């Protein structure tokens, strides 16, 4: 990737989990560490892009070369930050594990335990960030991720088509890969078919993914 294949391109990458507050001390989150997305942001910067990294709550340092970092907490905040950052961007890569639901109401005081009684939380659907971008008339080249425990290919192809994406990177979660782990394995789906990126460190996989994105971007938009 020494060829600066993305020089002059603006790339926005989302990474990490989202946290949806229940009350002042509790939230609904997920196991994303941000490692995959941070590696993608670093690889895109190495490829010459001007990178904006929109990060959920993670404990990772900003990778070298990344021009802008915006820290957010909830899916709604992530949507707002991504929409603002992609206003004049060429490529959006959604590596974040965005929470699909949030508590319908956030309590302003700590919810107390009621012995013996079940507690029910009512959840409201969160905005779909990729869906929001896909609906715009002028939209960046859109790359989604798909994290699944089963039927990975079917769900990934379905998301690619339903969300109108240019490419999707699918990962099977579990077995020491995907969330939190240092390694991952990806299958890329796009109009040109499937490309396997076998198990490797997230750093290495991110370089391969960014090279494929740059190739495809140049073919359709370059
Ligand atoms: O962070 P790590 O610990 O390194 O783990 C990496 C990872 C497993 C989180 C990453 O590789 C990954 O797969 N990220 C996407 C996880 C996910 O939430 O997948 P999904 O199938 O729920 O979502 C599909 C796509 O839609 C994703 O690009 C997601 O960013 C996007 N999405 C989802 C929900 C939503 N409301 N808005 C979205 O844009």
Automatic annotation (TrEMBL):
Q: Where is this region: Phosphopantothenate--cysteine ligase?
A: 11-222
Which cofactors must be present for this protein to function? Answer: Mg(2+); FMN
* UniProt keyword Magnesium present: yes
- Could you tell me the keywords of this UniProt record? Decarboxylase, Flavoprotein, FMN, Ligase, Lyase, Magnesium, Metal-binding, Multifunctional enzyme
Any one annotated GO CC term: phosphopantothenoylcysteine decarboxylase complex
Copy the pathway line from the protein's UniProt record: Cofactor biosynthesis; coenzyme A biosynthesis; CoA from (R)-pantothenate: step 2/5; Cofactor biosynthesis; coenzyme A biosynthesis; CoA from (R)-pantothenate: step 3/5
Q: Which residues bind CTP?
A: 100, 110, 127-130, 145, 159, 163
Q: How is the cofactor bound, in the record's words? A: Binds 1 FMN per subunit.
Provide a GO biological process annotation. pantothenate catabolic process
Limits of the DNA/pantothenate metabolism flavoprotein C-terminal domain: 6-215
Q: Which residues form the signal peptide?
A: none
The UniProt record lists the EC number as 4.1.1.36, 6.3.2.5
What is this enzyme's catalytic activity, as reactions? N-[(R)-4-phosphopantothenoyl]-L-cysteine + H(+) = (R)-4'-phosphopantetheine + CO2; (R)-4'-phosphopantothenate + L-cysteine + CTP = N-[(R)-4-phosphopantothenoyl]-L-cysteine + CMP + diphosphate + H(+)
User: What would be an example GO MF term here?
Assistant: FMN binding
The family line of this record is: In the N-terminal section; belongs to the HFCD (homo-oligomeric flavin containing Cys decarboxylase) superfamily.
Please describe what this protein does: Catalyzes two steps in the biosynthesis of coenzyme A. In the first step cysteine is conjugated to 4'-phosphopantothenate to form 4-phosphopantothenoylcysteine, in the latter compound is decarboxylated to form 4'-phosphopantotheine.
Instruction: Give the protein name, as stated in the record.
Output: Coenzyme A biosynthesis bifunctional protein CoaBC
Q: From which organism does this entry originate?
A: Dyella jiangningensis
Taxonomic placement? Bacteria, Pseudomonadati, Pseudomonadota, Gammaproteobacteria, Lysobacterales
